[in-house]
Design brief:
Length: 381
């Protein structure tokens, strides 16, 4: 599988280079069509680099980390101790952060498979998890697969590893609890491999369809349109769900705000809300830069897209960095920051709002993309 992916990446990069050189030459031969042809060449190179530098390798990273997590849970289940629990927690943090770099890649062809839901539906339904553990049935992979998405996945595993005053004592006391945790981790790894297979060329070939959907943003079926919609959906999620709701800020300005609700943060048990938030931003940044290759920022240059005299791509990357800096400035977990560092949390909320507007309005308008989801879409991502 890995060799196939690497071969595909190499091939797609070569194709992008050849197309880019060929189309650039054509542009030089025909001055009247040059700008459009150059734009097409850059867009093709962008899609190729996003495929080979961002989408495929990040899925590879997740599968690797999820496998390590599953191995750590096997060790914990067979020999629960402070050291095996801590090892499992470390792997959970790593895997969850890697997953969040994929947040903006839940595109339509993938979404219908519900892979993202099975891996990361939050918040976890604690009651259902406890009911699932309190069974006389044998807990195995089939048993876990039959549970709802909010009773397994990374959020479910977070609850089992981090919740309570003494998670280790709870795991030690109940072999069913250890079995459930083990097979939830195994299911995350399995779903990751299924998702990876959906993307690769010799599987579902979503990557081939992504590269082939090479038309301008006004085409609703284009990869540009789908990608910008996913980026906007993620930015809304970051602002309203991951920061606004825990702060008690109403999504609709016409509605009154309320008291802070710290328990509504993502990853409330592991206290890694900010780490995951920053991983989401890292994923957005990779899409903007093409993972160090040709990205959306380069494509925007061909459109001469600007904001207040600055290239729009640079403005967007700068705003991602400012939002990340605002998140990094919090010195306590977000669930504490919404009350104890309210000013810093409000700054994060505002910076995220600016990022949302840049993506949903400026980026979408310059690319001719119609934002097709409603304000309530994506609330449970």
């Amino acid at each position: 599988m890995i060799d196939t992916i690497r071969s595909f990446r190499t091939a797609i990069a070569v194709v992008a280079l050849v197309l880019g050189l060929g189309l650039t030459a054509a542009a030089c031969d025909n001055g009247s069509e040059g700008p459009t042809t150059d734009r097409d060449a850059v867009r093709q190179a962008m899609l190729a680099d996003l495929a080979s530098r961002v989408i495929l390798p990040t899925h590879d990273d997740f599968v690797r980390d999820a496998d390590e997590l599953a191995s750590a849970l096997e060790a914990l289940a067979s020999s629960p101790s402070a050291s095996t629990l801590e090892a499992a927690r470390v792997e959970w943090r790593t895997t969850a952060a890697t997953w969040h770099r994929l947040s903006a890649l839940n595109m339509p062809g993938v979404r219908f498979g519900l892979y993202h839901n099975r891996i990361n539906t939050w918040p976890a339904n604690v009651e259902v998890i406890e009911e699932s553990i309190a069974t006389t049935a044998t807990i195995d992979s089939a048993y876990v697969a039959a549970r709802g998405s909010n009773a397994r996945g990374l959020p479910g595993l977070e609850y089992l590893l981090f919740a309570g005053d003494d998670a280790l004592a709870a795991l030690n006391a109940d072999p069913q609890r250890r079995a459930y945790a083990r097979f939830v981790a195994a299911d995350v790894a399995y779903q990751g491999r299924v998702l990876q297979d959906r993307w690769v060329a010799d599987g579902g070939d979503e990557i081939g369809m992504f590269v082939d959907a090479d038309t301008e943003g006004r085409d609703l079926q284009s990869s540009v349109s789908r990608l910008v919609n996913e980026m906007a959906m993620l930015a809304e999620d970051l602002r309203y769900q991951k920061v606004g709701r825990p702060m008690g800020i109403a999504r609709n300005p016409s509605e009154p705000g309320g008291d802070p609700q710290p328990d509504l943060v993502e990853a409330p048990y592991a206290n890694t809300s900010i780490d995951l938030f920053r991983a989401d931003l890292a994923g957005l940044r990779a899409l903007m830069t093409g993972g160090g290759g040709t990205g959306l920022d380069d494509y925007l240059v061909t459109l001469e897209a600007e904001l207040d005299g600055q290239p729009l791509g640079a403005a967007l990357i700068g705003q991602i960095d400012r939002t990340d800096a605002a998140a990094a400035s919090l010195t306590v977990p977000l669930r504490s920051a919404v009350t104890d560092q309210r000013g810093a949390a409000e700054t994060l909320y505002e910076e995220t709002g600016t990022l949302l507007r840049l993506i949903k309005t400026d980026l979408a308008n310059w690319l001719g993309v119609s934002i097709t989801f409603s304000d309530n879409d994506g609330d449970s991502r």
